[in-house]
């Protein structure tokens, strides 16, 4: 450890203030602080500090994503081989064959996402003279997980660049963005390259157009066909879809990690599922068409709803920031997510649009919650004044 | 009418290095200093020059904007140095003690019969006025004001802070006299907040409230908020527990006797030395701790959350009852960001087992990370027991938005109320500093 430290200290020398590469200090700092939590001590304010920092928080989210990611790799490979081999069940595909095949398909997406995104982050950190924020560690992993596996890499790269540049840096960087960057990337691709982002052929690697297995449940429903998957299949995730959003169980493991570590707001997650269930029940009660009749509990496990609510809606920067606001925000994310699914079959993935919509309205929700506090204070002042006048 | 307060939000940091309850007399300091920086927003105007002989209680300087408020010598001796910093700002007025206890006598005053004006003028003349802190703004009270209530907290919840129950044990008469005196200065009441089973609950001329809950339950800010919240335009005063006894003593004896009991705490102080020391305000810290290796040990006048960093041979803060020595955390931690590692560092976060494991912790001054953009939400609310939105108030202060600060309750807070936010927040934001700057802005703009 000491040896590594000494080498690092040597490597840092040209980056110190007054030296040749002074401007590039954020770049070397990012590597250095990744290896070592720095020896900085408190200069003002409280003399002691909590062990938590943004790196720890962000890495926790990455850890929470791992179950969904690993399952996604397996499922991507399994769906492909299942179709290739013409097996009876997805689960009949040999486990390691499926996993390795999936890993080969998914890893390039992750690499492209990280390389493109982090490059932009580093450039902006150096340009703005601040440290590299860790937020992209999460965003960079989320993006490939919510894309179809066959997205051309250059499209992915452009979507990532759009999300980081326009979605985040244009607003002032980490902590300032209005929309969730990962969803911004997906929404960009969704509208820019609809052929690669929707339809029935894209959800399985080299999916055949006429094959029913190539479709997502939401796509099937939108066409008015009946769904061939059971609740268990959908919850476990043995279905086609974006890379890692299919398994509600894997997502819920991540949700448990986020909620227990208080990194993700349990209010948003619980509120979100409640909102989706309520909207589903309302539709069931009317039941005017096949989409409306789709059981409310199925809504919770199909598509990206769970993934979106757990990993995207909880992004603290773009979500509501007050406690009450989080309940309202989460509830409406789920509520509108199911509503968009049912009312607008052209956009079967409603949760993405619902969360982006709620991202925009989160400050408004907070405004009204805070206004409650403000008017309480004003009432107290008025009461005190009235008391003073009578006295 | 007493009102018991129970708060749930907050955080009790259980640290190693607490002081035993014995009180000893500290060795006499040869030099004492009054530091204008301890009196926030006071611009000092010197009365005496370097080399002048002073008696205890003799005014050294007064406040430029409130000339009646005088700052007096804690001991008799000669002014040996007036230390100035950048822009000739006065940093320390040092007095070399002559070892005599010559003090200016103002004559005894019976607090029970004295009028408010009498009490006020003696406090101002006798050098006790600076003990009175006003909210809003957390500065020394204006001598023109009449507050709607006065709050005294005799319940210390800050980590390792000196316990008023200990240092007031033999000062009950003076404490009572001080409370009686203060009770004449307010249009409302004096509120004394104590912990459960306190020996001070029979104090007269004050409403005594029992406070329960984690830190910051002992902060007057929280107590005011729960008992008699401050509205725009109102003034509430707060006085430290031992300071009340010093005030009481002024009336009982007619002399300014700034006796200060200081708890020496923290893991870098020897266990045998960790106890209460009787000394005098402005004493040199070396009279208590000698010389320490400040490269590896931090000397803090005050508690670990709100105290001032000191060097060797510097002087105690005017208001502090605690002297903390903790190790400097100037060390690297390999992969220190890994969740659920470094559980020995106290933490309020879910990504550490620290809270689950419980027990007392050693702390150092490592920042445990770096400054980052404000990303995480909801963590500040966990340690803020007031009905205030901390993140939004902090942002309003950063933006200097006066109306929004007002709306969000800037008048009710002091920097110390945000000390736990300094500690817990992921982005390593200096919340106390931001609030202080916000309050300063309000002070100049609204006043």
TrEMBL record, chain A:
Is-annotated flag, keyword Cell membrane?
Answer: yes
Q: Which UniProt keywords apply?
A: Cell inner membrane, Cell membrane, Flavoprotein, FMN, Ion transport, Membrane, NAD, Phosphoprotein, Sodium, Sodium transport, Translocase, Transmembrane, Transmembrane helix, Transport, Ubiquinone
The cross-references to Pfam families, in alphabetical order and at most eight, read: NQR2_RnfD_RnfE (PF03116)
Enumerate the catalysed reactions: a ubiquinone + n Na(+)(in) + NADH + H(+) = a ubiquinol + n Na(+)(out) + NAD(+)
Protein's membrane topology: Multi-pass membrane protein
Listed EC numbers: 7.2.1.1
Which GO cellular component term is one of those annotated? plasma membrane
Give the top-rank taxon of the lineage listed in the UniProt record for this protein: Bacteria
What are the GO BP annotations of this UniProt entry?
respiratory electron transport chain; sodium ion transport; transmembrane transport
This protein's record includes keyword Transmembrane: yes
Question: Which residues does the record list as FMN phosphoryl threonine (modified residue)?
Answer: 216
Q: Where are the transmembrane segments?
A: 58-82, 102-124, 136-166, 178-196, 268-290, 296-314, 326-344, 350-370
Q: Where in the cell is it found?
A: Cell membrane
> Which Gene Ontology MF annotations are present?
FMN binding; oxidoreductase activity, acting on NAD(P)H, quinone or similar compound as acceptor
Q: Which cofactor does it need?
A: FMN
Enzyme class comes to translocase
> Quaternary state and partners of this protein?
Composed of six subunits; NqrA, NqrB, NqrC, NqrD, NqrE and NqrF.
The record ties this protein, via HAMAP family, to: NqrB
The Swiss-Prot or TrEMBL record describes its family as follows: Belongs to the NqrB/RnfD family.
| Function text | NQR complex catalyzes the reduction of ubiquinone-1 to ubiquinol by two successive reactions, coupled with the transport of Na(+) ions from the cytoplasm to the periplasm. NqrA to NqrE are probably involved in the second step, the conversion of ubisemiquinone to ubiquinol.
The protein depicted here goes by the name: Na(+)-translocating NADH-quinone reductase subunit B
Give the originating organism.
Answer: Nonlabens dokdonensis
* Gene that this sequence comes from: nqrB
From TrEMBL, chain B:
Q: What is its EC number?
A: 7.2.1.1
Q: Identify which top EC class this enzyme belongs to.
A: translocase
Concerning Pfam families, the annotation shows:
NQRA_2nd, NQRA_N, NQRA_SLBB
A GO term, aspect molecular function = oxidoreductase activity, acting on NAD(P)H, quinone or similar compound as acceptor
Which positions, given as ranges, span the membrane?
A: none
What sequence ranges are listed for the domain NqrA N-terminal barrel-sandwich hybrid? 5-98
Catalysed reaction, written as an equation: a ubiquinone + n Na(+)(in) + NADH + H(+) = a ubiquinol + n Na(+)(out) + NAD(+)
Q: Name one GO biological process term.
A: sodium ion transport
Q: Which residues form the Na(+)-translocating NADH-quinone reductase subunit A C-terminal domain?
A: 261-310
Self-association state and partner proteins as the record states: Composed of six subunits; NqrA, NqrB, NqrC, NqrD, NqrE and NqrF.
Give the protein family.
Belongs to the NqrA family.
Q: HAMAP family, alphabetically?
A: NqrA
Q: Which PANTHER family does the record cross-reference, listed alphabetically? A: NA(+)-TRANSLOCATING NADH-QUINONE REDUCTASE SUBUNIT A
- Name used for this protein in its record: Na(+)-translocating NADH-quinone reductase subunit A
Q: Native species of this protein?
A: Nonlabens dokdonensis
Q: What is the lineage of its organism?
A: Bacteria, Pseudomonadati, Bacteroidota, Flavobacteriia, Flavobacteriales
